[in-house]
Amino acid sequence: MAEPQKRLAFAIIEFLQEQLQHGGLSPDAQESLEVAIQCLETAFGVSVEDRGLAISQKLPDIFEAAAAKEPLQSCPIAEPASPTEEDAVEAERLKTEGNEQMKVENFQSAVSFYGRAIELNPANAVYYCNRAAAYSKLGNYAGAVRDCERAINIDPKYSKAYGRMGLALSSLNKLSEAVFYYRKALELDPENETYKSNLKVTEQKMKEAPSPTGGAGGFDLAGLLNNPGFMSMASNLMNNPQVQQLMSGMISSSQSPVAAPGASTAPHDLASLIQAGQQSGAGPPAPATKSSRNEAAAGLCSWPGRPPLPQGKDQLKSLRAAAAASHSSLGKAHKERGGGGGHRA
Fold this sequence. Notes:
Radius of gyration: 29 Å
Order of helices and strands: HHHHHHHHHHHHHHHH
Low-confidence stretches: 212-219, 259-268, 280-288, 293-313, 337-345
Distance between the termini: 53 Å
Shape: extended
Strand content: under 5%
Structural class: mainly alpha
C-alpha cells in the first residue's frame, strides 16, 4: 500500500475517532463508526496508534480550506413528472382494486396493485400510505416505515401517514419514535380516537419496559460490558482452563444435593478464582472492539451447563438473567460449604 494512501486513511480514521468522542452521536451511529474504523484499519493496514502517519493539518481543516475556494453549487431537485390524465385515472383504478384486496385480506395482491399505481403516479401520497398499511399486515414493518416516509415527504400534513408510521415503529419496538409520530398525527387530527388510543398504549409500554442499563440494585451491567478493560479481562479469564474447571465445579456442587460440605476435587474457593483471574489478566489488555466485547459478554455465560447467548438486541437481557442465575448458584454453593457469612467490600 502506497504511503500517501495510508496517510489519508489514517487522517480519516483520526477524524472518525474524534466524532466518536465529541460528535454527540446516537449509540447506533457510534457503533456504525466503530465498524467503519475497523474496516479502514484492516483494508489499509493502519491503526490509530500509527502516529507517524499523522500530518500537521487535521482533515476537517483541509476540507474547510478547499470548500472555501469552491462555493456550494445549488442543484435543482427534479420534480416528478406529472402523470397524464389517462395514467392518473388508471392509477386511481389500481388503488381502488388494492383497497378491495385489503378488504378480503389478500395483502400481497394489494401491495402489487398499490405498487402499480405508484409507478403511474409517484407523486400521490395516498398510494404510498395504503401500501404501507398492506406491508404492515404482512409483517414487513420496515417497508411500511419507508412508504410512510415517502408519503410524508410528499404531503407533510397527511395525518394518516404519521399514524401508520407510529404503528409500524411500535411493531418494531421503537416506542419513543412511535410516540413522536402519534403525537404529530394528533396535531393534524386532534379528534382521532384511534391515534389517541395508540398513543396511550405506546406510552404505557414505554413505562413498563425495563431499563436497558440498570440491573438489580442499580447495577449498570451495560456500562460494565462497554468497559474495554473489563471486557478484555473477562475474555482472558473465561478462556483460562483453570477458571473453566472452577466454574464447572461450583455449578456442579451447587446442583448436587448430596455433596458433603468441604468435599472438593477442584480448588473451588474464591481465592483460587481471584488468583486465576489475576494470572489471566497479567500484562496489558488487548484493545477491545465491538465484536470482542460481544464475544467476551457471551463468554461470561458460556461455561459448561450454561446455554449460549442469542445474538442481537436480546443478548444483554439474556446475559442479565444468566448472571442472576449464576450469582444464585454460587451463593448457594458458598453457603453449603459453611461460608454464608461475610460482607461485600
